[in-house]
Structures are given as structure tokens and as C-alpha cells.
Amino acid sequence: MKKPINQQDRRDFLKATAMLAGGAMLSSIPLAGAYASGSDTIKIALIGCGDRGTGAAFQALSTKFNIKLVAMADAFQDRLDSSYQSLSSKFAAKMDVPKERQFVGFDAYLKAIPLADVVLLTTPPGFRPIHFEEAVKQNKQIFMEKPVAVDAPGIRKVLAAAEEAKKKKLNVVVGLQRRYQTNYRESMKRINDGAIGDIMSGQVYWNSGGVWVRPRKANQTEMEYQMRNWYYFNWLCGDHIVEQHVHNIDIANWIKNGHPVSVQGTGSRAWRTGKDYGEIYDNHSIELTYADGAVINSQCRHFEGISNRVDETFQGTKGKIYLSGSNQAIMKDYSGKELYNHNTKGNANPYQTEHDELFDAVSKGEYKFSNVDYAATSTFSSIIGRYATYSGQTIKWDEALASNISLMPERFAWDANPRLMPDEKGLYPIAIPGQTKVI
């Protein structure tokens, strides 16, 4: 009898993370009904029309394949309008989105998904499990942005939908673009061949000045305010350790070919302390302990005026490696001998590569991509990092995965209240280590 998803052991949960290249082939069996239209035009729908969604659509439409954008969906009309105008200015011949296929509201995704062969899921991540589940139900090929959830119930929903996607041979590519970046792929080949031995420690970073702030406007409901400022509310974002730092934590998991069995750490609100910053912390520092005893240290922070750092370093039994999203990869042994130095010039844009490889598979009717297992693993590694910093406790993987604490509102409507509400001064409750319950 199949185990319930929340009782899966790590072996089941990680069975696909052995695919060390982001585009590892699963099967060359042709897909049944690859195109809903029966023509050679690949129809796409954009679900989430913000900056990242518009960027994903730009990359999809920039591939060499015969693609048309036929539907768009967003919670906000102005976001959809802005995205439509931006895309139309560049891809007028590939745009076929009349007003009747521009959908607005919380249920807009339900109207757009059935119209396409491939869907781009790019809303704030709190909605990802719901949208992914529906796309799989509708038998769609999928690109979805990271992270894939914000809490344990969301992760379990994603994992369940991923199993259905595999059964249906639906390609799913997730926007952890380092998996599609040449310097990371080339480095992983060498690491897997034993160039620096067993990885025993590492450090991963996303230290930066932070992101945008959108002040509250008159007549906004609380739901609209939080949706407009989604980065600062965990039911939408997951905190920046999840939304942003997942990229670096994903590399830690990739290089370890697994996930941490426990996480502990600390965090706080030290710089972004006002009511405009919702509930999230502005710094997290955690230790991820893996099954073999290896410990990888993780830092992420949003302080203005700091020295920025976004990269990864790892130490093996025979050598070490430095990696970054700027195409760097430098591998040395402990005598200082250089083992590999990646040429940073002429590398393909990994954001584009994700779409090039996905749409190549779709155009050929091939099943190649199931990125969800490692994406869910890395997303949940980041989530339990938040659990650890918010609670001050050491968080064990299996216990956290079984948690039933959901961050999502009971109802999606503009007049509905999110679970987290401000006090009379407009301030939101903040997690207090030692007091806050997370799992």
C-alpha cells in the first residue's frame, strides 16, 4: 500500500534528486496529445503577470519554436495590462490574447489553464501548490517559478501533484536556473567524478540590500494590501530565506545529493523593522546538517549599505570549489593546484536555457523533465530554515514535513482577512524565538 505523502521516507522523497543535471532525460516516449489544438503551434498561458511572469513569458516567446501566448491571468488588472503591453511591444506576432482571454481575480487561473498546452506558473509562491495541482489535473506541460510552496501542507500538495505529473508524462521545469547554468553543470560533472572528494562542509550566501516596498494606499482592503506587498508576508512569500535564498540552498542539496536531516539557526529583524515590512525577518543564519554529518552554513540578509554576497563555496576531502551565478567556478586541491576554472565568457543565459530545453521537449513530444522533486526538497529545506530561526529550535526534517500548520487564508476574496492581521498601529505580529510555534 502506498504511504501517505506526509509519511514518505527520505528515499522516496528524494528519488529524483539523483538527476544531477537540471535537464536529465526521463523518457523519450512521445507524449500523448502534446498539443491541445492538434496543430504545430504551442499555446501558452501566463498565470501571474508580475515582473518575473512577464520575464518568463518573454523567454518562452524568445525560443525558436512556434509559440503563441493565448491566455493571461492575474489577480490585478493593472498587472495584467502592464505585462500585456510589454510583451506585445516585442512579440506582437506571437500574441493572441484578446480581452475575452485576459482573466482577472483569484479564480483567473481556472479560466486560463484549460486554453493552453504549456502553462507558466509565476504568481507569488503561496499560490504555487494550488496552481500546479490544477495544471496537472488539466494535463498541461508546466514551467513554474521557485519556490514551490511556503509551508509543509503546500509541499505535500506539490509532491502529490508531482506524482500525478510523472504518471501522465507531463514535463515540469522549475525556475531554479542554476541547474540550467553551464558553470554549475560542468562543476557537478567533475564533483560527481570525485575531483574534490566527499563534500564535508560548505557556505552559501544571499546577502543583499533587499527588495521593493509598496506603501499602503487609501481604501485598500487588508487582502489587497498584503497581495500588493506579497514579499513581506509568509503566506505569499515564505520569507526571503525561502523566496530568494532557495537558489543557494538548492546548490547545497545538489552538491550533497540529498537534503538536511535537521536545521538550526538564528535570525531577526535588525534593519527592516517598520510596519511596511510585514512579518518577515531581514536576516537568517542557519546550519544544515546532512545524513552523513556534513554541515553547510547558510546566510541571507536584507541590510542596506552592506557588502553584498551571493555565491556558494564547498569543501571536500580532496579539494574545494567556489561557484556563483555570474558564471564563475573555481576548483582547487588543498595544495593550491587549480583543477578547474570555468570560462565566464559566452555562457548561455540560464533563464533562457530553461525555456529552450522545455519547449524543445514539448515540440518533439518527449518527456524529459521532472524538476519538482529537487525543487520541493530545496524549497522545504528553506522553509525549515525559517522554522528554525522563528522558533529557536532544532528542526528535524521528518517532523516538519508532517506539520499541518497552514499559512494560507481560509478564503480567497478581496474582503476576506488573511490569517495575519495588523494591530491598531499597523504593526504585524513577529515571530519570537522560544515562543513561536512553527510545526
UniProtKB/TrEMBL annotation:
<dbReference type="InterPro" id="IPR019546">
    <property type="entry name" value="TAT_signal_bac_arc"/>
</dbReference>
<dbReference type="InterPro" id="IPR050463">
    <property type="entry name" value="Gfo/Idh/MocA_oxidrdct_glycsds"/>
</dbReference>
<feature type="domain" description="Gfo/Idh/MocA-like oxidoreductase N-terminal">
    <location>
        <begin position="42"/>
        <end position="168"/>
    </location>
</feature>
<dbReference type="InterPro" id="IPR006311">
    <property type="entry name" value="TAT_signal"/>
</dbReference>
<feature type="domain" description="GFO/IDH/MocA-like oxidoreductase">
    <location>
        <begin position="185"/>
        <end position="321"/>
    </location>
</feature>
<dbReference type="InterPro" id="IPR000683">
    <property type="entry name" value="Gfo/Idh/MocA-like_OxRdtase_N"/>
</dbReference>
<dbReference type="GO" id="GO:0000166">
    <property type="term" value="F:nucleotide binding"/>
</dbReference>
<dbReference type="Pfam" id="PF01408">
    <property type="entry name" value="GFO_IDH_MocA"/>
</dbReference>
<protein>
    <submittedName>
        <fullName>Secreted protein</fullName>
    </submittedName>
</protein>
<dbReference type="InterPro" id="IPR055170">
    <property type="entry name" value="GFO_IDH_MocA-like_dom"/>
</dbReference>
<dbReference type="InterPro" id="IPR036291">
    <property type="entry name" value="NAD(P)-bd_dom_sf"/>
</dbReference>
<dbReference type="Pfam" id="PF22725">
    <property type="entry name" value="GFO_IDH_MocA_C3"/>
</dbReference>
